[in-house]
Amino acid sequence: MRRRVVKQKIGIKLLTIRDAAAVLKTTQVKVYPLVRSGLLPSISRLHPSTRKRQFFIEPEALEEFQRLHISIAGIASIYGTRADIIARRMELLGIEPSFDPGGRTGRFYRRSDLDKFTFDRLAA
Questions:
Q1: In this structure, are residues 84 and 92 in contact, taking their beta carbons and an 8 Å threshold?
Q2: CA distance 114 to 100
């Protein structure tokens, strides 16, 4: 109940980092670097209850991000394999991540680069 009241004060259409993480099927820890890098545009507002600055994401910005980018976990899910295997294959093909927080599991790739991606279980 309290969460709904806070959302109404901030703007019902804005998503929290938690909401964005749920949509992206990842964790908040992986969404914050996307926001800080500017790859996932956000709005900073004062939280009405805590009076601290908090990031919010417009649903349209999240949809655009999803249209342009895919997580390495998402690619692995498509091919029915693990993210580390996909990461290794991407590296072999010279496909650079659009976002790399420093660990293979948090990488995102441009969807447009997936046409260069081939996955042969024997080659992996």
A1: no
A2: 16
Give domain 68-116's CATH architecture.
Orthogonal Bundle (1.10)
Tokens of 45: 């507002």
At residue 70, the 3 state secondary structure works out as: strand
Average pLDDT, the chain: 83
Domains of the chain, by residue range, sit at 2-67, 68-116
Is residue 100 pLDDT above 90, yes or no?
Answer: no
Tokens matching residue 39? 């790859």
Write out the chain in H/E/C secondary structure. Answer: CHHHHHHHHHCCCCEEHHHHHHHHCCCHHHHHHHHHHCCCCCEEEECCCCCCEEEEECHHHHHHHHHHEEEHHHHHHHHCCCHHHHHHHHHHHCCCCCECCCCHHHCEEEHHHHHHCCCCCCCC
Q: pTM (2 decimals)?
A: 0.78
CA pseudo-torsion sign 92, 98, 103, 106: negative
- Say how far apart CA 9 and CA 19 lie, in whole Å: 17
